[in-house]
Amino acid sequence: MSPDKPLLAIDRVAIVMNLVPYLVERGPVSVTEAARELDVAPDVLRSLAEGLVVIGLPDGMHNDLFDIDWDLLDEHDELQLLNTVAFERAPRLTAREAAALLAGLQLAGAAPGVAAQGVVPGLIAKLSRGASTAPAELTVAAHPADEVRSAVMDALDRGFAVSFTHQKPDDSPTTRTVDPVKILVKDDQWYLRGWCHMRRDMRTFHLERVSDVVVTDIPAGAHDDPEASIFGTADGPLEATIRFSSHVAPLLGQFLDHAVVKAEGTRSRAALRVADPTQLKRLAARRGGEVEIVAPDEARIAAVEWARAGLAQYL
Fold it and tell me: Does domain 144-219 have CATH number 1.10.8?
């Protein structure tokens, strides 16, 4: 950590959280060595270590949870914890608290890459043993989309192609066979990134639009992915262009995160990569004429037809 960079409160908390287990494991250690390993200035580390003794319980003494060897620090500039009751006094969870955490861990286990690490089962077992009373047995009911995710992750882990029905908005469903490359999560939305056998190219599929998933016995090939973001080559045109009033730029959020924006007087033009350009119609509709879809024509036509269909509901 650069000594010129100010140490934020969140950085101080992170250092303290690492410092305590570090001192418990290492025993007496010089301030200089500890500062080097924890990537912090020695004077800052010394100050944080001295502050450990004031961490305590409500209405308790200043060294209830931690205390340090002051003589060792003053005479030899070394750190050693003398009192670690905070580690020895393990908190006990109520059965309801443990059940809530267990439910959260089951959901976390569905995240890409988490289940494969084998961490979640061990945490679940520890929480079950650490509760004051046995938590109720529970299972988080799977949403239909979870079955899709599970099948896709299974195909990815085992190295086989996956076949499914893909429903694009405003288009007929198609059957795709895809060599899965990775699973992406963006703003709680799940996407499959892989090599589409039909398009002969890398594509991004929104898993909410995927159904009837089957893990095939076709070995998945190795494919380079030049576009790692979900805002890259997708099942549709690569690039779209919009024109918008400059004052609405803060409202366009992630659409402009990777866009090339050029000012044109009081308006701006942005070239952006999107997974499905036809979905820009919603962006344009929400901004009430402040956003214009310039290209591609497919997206412009989709926006016009969508607006006409909405108007027809009131006629």
Answer: no
